Amino acid sequence: MAETGEEETMPAEASGFSDLSDSEFLDLEDTQESSASLSKPGPSSELPGKDGMLISLPKWKRGLDVLPPMERFHLKYLNVTDLSSQNWCEQQMVYGKELPGFLSHEKAAILDTGASIHLARELEVHDLMTIPITTKEDAWAVKFLNILSMIPTLQSEGRVREFPVFGEVESVLLVGVIDELHYTAKGELELVELKTRRRPVLPLEAQKKKDCFQVSLYKYIFDAMVQGKVTTASLLHHVKLHPEKPLGPSVLRHAKQGGFSVKSLGDLMELVFLSLTLSDLPVIDILKIEYIHQETATVLGTEIVAVEEKELRSKVQHYLAYWMGHREPQGVDIEEAWKCRMCNYADICEWRKDGGVHSATLEPQAKKAK
Questions:
Q1: How far apart are CA 51 and CA 101, in angstroms?
Q2: Is residue 250 within 8 Å of 346, Cβ to Cβ?
Q3: 281: which of 161, 206, 226, 360 fits an S-S bond (Cβ 3.0–4.6 Å)?
Q4: What is the pLDDT of residues 197-210, one digit of tens each?
Q5: How far apart are CA 198 and CA 339, in angstroms?
């Protein structure tokens, strides 16, 4: 497998598929200790950045002239994990987009450790090499070459890791990376999503719910890919790629080493779509989430996910309505107001200020006294 190594400064999304899959720091059990050491944002609607300087938080502007979030955040596509973050708290996800540089050292360390574990697992089944790139066409070409190499590997050896997926859902392009695909002893195709845990405990049900949504969406997109429902035209339209543009020398050399005679991204995309539909890859039969302890690599438990497609589509439509500008962002329901206790944006949260989370959940004693 190949990974991109930028030679020039490129847009963040130019590297193609990127889907941060670990989200273990979200739930209460893993964040009580770390959140206590964070500086709380004050009433001035500002948050401390990494260097201690205050960062002004843009407020949601109400009115017909406001750009849809897809345009406001300059996004051509969404990661699957963007939608799964909405499943946890949409308002928190929005603040994260508005303050991309704000991440506590504790949470950053958790993500770094999780990423290292994922990389180590990938190296168990794939050899990695860095391919220099200079254009977004080169970056996506490398990802497509990975797909082309993974398909026969999955069919012959029965296991691949870090499989890229992409597809249009409700007129929005979604991309992601499946941690692992393998065939079971019964010949069923199983997806395994790895979630690492800083502490040796299973996550709360709310976190499991978020993880289940994520893998269900992976299945939905992958199944559409192998069923021929994903088109070249859709991808080119959303990402604004130029299929006729010649690929860089490093990418062409890597393609030739893999036995692929291509000159442009268009040539490569044609091969990918043919391979996906003609290789007899089945749809995913089983979805499994595996939780492991970061320090000891002990498996803490597994979840088998049952997909309810009608419910999944309903949730996706609701989440995408925000991105298309059809509604304002929403915070958590009153039943899940406990999530606010660990949120870095709690003191400036407009959802709470506007009564989305009722004050009764924040000051129960005062309400009872009345």
A1: 10
A2: no
A3: 226
A4: 888 999 989 899 99
A5: 18
